[in-house]
Amino acid sequence: MRHLKRYFFIVIFFFAAMSSFAVQKDIDMKEILWGHIKDSYEWHVTNLGETPVVIHLPVIVKSSTGWHVFCSSQFEENPDSEGNRRGPYGLYIKGSEDETYPNKIVEKVGNTEVRPLDISITKTTCVLFIDAFILLLCILIPARWCRNHKVDDPAPRGFVGLMHMFVMSVYDDVIKAVMGKEADKYAPYLLTCFFFIFIANIMGIVPFPPGGGNLTGNIACTCFLGVATFLVTNLTGTKEYWKEIFWPDVPAWLKVPVPLMPVIELFGIFTKPLALVIRLFANMMAGHAIALAFAGMIFIMFHLTTDDVVNNLAGSGMSIISVALSVFMMLLEILVSYIQALVFTMLSAVFISLAHVKEHE
Asked: Could you list the residue range(s) of the whole structural domain that residue 216 is in?
């Protein structure tokens, strides 16, 4: 523990010293925060001086002139006076300040801007493929060990043993504890949700490729997970579950002539998965935004006044505080990554279990 504390303070002072010697220039904190969260057609890694290090991704669109496949590097780096980045085939990326199609590929047909059919491999899509591949490795490697060994063989060690412990912990303490006898039927879906969310959360904390993509901080991804739970819950619901929604056991004046309780119960079908979507999205996006905000405070303090001496003192002092807070937030994010995956899995199991209510005697 003493050595860990020593290494911790060395890391803090190292990054604080590096930030003190950073190039002091005006930066756009809004662009930095949203640049990490929003989707894009390229993967910006870092800057080496004035040169950006960017991973260009494939663009696949169907415009008015047909299908086009090309690299995002063909879009101009510097936007024009309207904030658009021109590209080939009459296509261009709108600026982030555009109210209609911000950061999206559009084309001009006549005098109207329209969106082509866009199935490009964007940053979020690329991160999704990477996380899905890691998920398959985490599942298939232990599955291969189980297929080649018997029940009475010694317990596995290393990565396989860790995954066995992880799976049994979620299965016994969450899925089986909530769903009881139906745990085996829905365990594959619930375990997939848990490990996909957990891997996506952890990979979002890694500051360099293949990590660094805030997948669960994207509302489209969390919305898909919520819709999946919504479909599993309602498509497998029992007759008694639907009866309690459309004709609950309440006084008749709450059902006719104004169907007050059925409307409330029907509304609750949609609020449950919506709560899953918003909780996961908000928690993961907020954690990344706070960590970036702490780092941005360093540059803000370097431009606090017009006096360079005061700015250097304020920036150097804030560097230590900001780096310490950023490290703390990253460590907290690891815990939050596990908790959010566990909460999503637990609530999904609860919602599915509530849809399997039996007829009351």
From this structure: 123-356
Determine the Cα–Cα distance for residues 5 and 224; give it in Å rounded to an integer: 41
C-alpha angle 172/173/177, rounded to 5°?
80
Residues 200 and 268 in one domain: yes
Contact between 190 and 345 under an 8 Å Cβ cutoff? The reply is yes
Specify the number of domains making up the chain: 2
With contact defined as beta carbons under 8 Å apart, do 279 and 269 qualify? no
pLDDT in tens, 21-79: 444 445 666 666 666 677 888 887 777 777 778 888 999 999 888 999 999 989 988 88
d(CA 333, CA 329): 6
| Residue 23: both structure tokens together | 């190039």
Instruction: Give the mean pLDDT of 119-137.
Output: 92
Residue 350 makes CB contacts below 8 A (sequence gap 6+) with 178
| Same domain, residue pair 110 and 143 | no
134 Cβ partners below 8 Å, 6+ apart?
199, 203
223 and 279: one domain? Answer: yes
Instruction: Tell me what pLDDT residue 133 has.
Output: 94
What is the token pair recorded at 55? 């991973």
The answer, as to whether pTM is greater than 0.85, is no
